[in-house]
Amino acid sequence: MYPTNYHRPTTVEEAVALFAEASDPKYLAGGHTLIPVMKQRLNAPSDVIDITRIPALVGIEASADTLTIKAATAYYDILSSADVNRTIPAIAQLVSVLGDPAVRYRGTIGGSIATNDPNADFPAAVLALNATVHTNQRAIPADQFFTGLFSTALQDNEIITAIAFPIPAKAGYAKMRNPASRFALTGVFVAKHKSGEIRVAATGASQNGVMRVEVIEQALARDWSAAALENIAVSEEGLMADIHGSSDYRANLIKVMAQRAVVAAG
């Protein structure tokens, strides 16, 4: 790693000020993307601003209609939260198959979606649940937040403060894990909203990152059951093909994982 200046602010305002003063800064949340690329000398920020110790960015709140998870809340705290397990248990299920214990104790939801790694789990939940991403500047709907591979609508000096999830009628998540990294080879989050809208999002499959799967949404809107997906075909166009699986393999995985997610949702 190259030399860098490390900062640990205690407020969002202090973090933003430090970012503005530095020549090439990076925010640090869980660090599971930033630290490895720094170790490989693929990124050399002048300043690393650790936002995980800012009290205003940690915590979970639930109302009758919304589950709000603050950005620096660790995965383990999400997994063990009574509010999460009561309102959207599919989120707890997602965290239970995310990484390993070391990752779950350190990783944060805000860091996951800010990085928008194509194999990360949480972007699928944010998109399928039609969440709103709150920052220190604005509120961004899920459909506008993810803009491409490792790309989001965030501006350089913008910090995610919280993610607000509408509580659905039903939701489920299932993924095929890479046995080495435990990233999602393909993962699918399904949600049946109280309005009747069906939203389905897949991660680990598309060349452009997390994606909606309209053919599955349409089938589940007609019949919310795993059987309803038996005869549908997911297009392999735009899907990834690498040493872990071909594009047609991932297309089939989307369907299979969607079926498992629907069963998990009930």
Helix tally? 11
The N- and C-terminal alpha carbons lie at a distance of 48 Å
Q: What would the average pLDDT be, to the nearest integer? A: 95
Detail the poorly predicted runs: none
Provide the spatial order of strands within the biggest beta sheet: 4-5-10-6-7
CATH class of the largest domain: Alpha Beta
User: CATH topology of the largest domain, anyone?
Assistant: Uridine Diphospho-n-acetylenolpyruvylglucosamine Reductase, domain 3
- The radius of gyration computed from the alpha-carbon positions, rounded to a whole number of angstroms, is 18 Å
What's the CATH architecture of the largest domain?
Answer: 2-Layer Sandwich
How many discrete domains?
Answer: 2
Pfam families: FAD_binding_5
InterPro entries: CO_DH_flav_C, CO_DH_flav_C_dom_sf, Diverse_Substr_Oxidored, FAD-bd_PCMH, FAD-bd_PCMH-like_sf, FAD-bd_PCMH_sub1, FAD-bd_PCMH_sub2, Mopterin_DH_FAD-bd
GO molecular function: FAD binding; oxidoreductase activity
Organism: Rhodopseudomonas faecalis
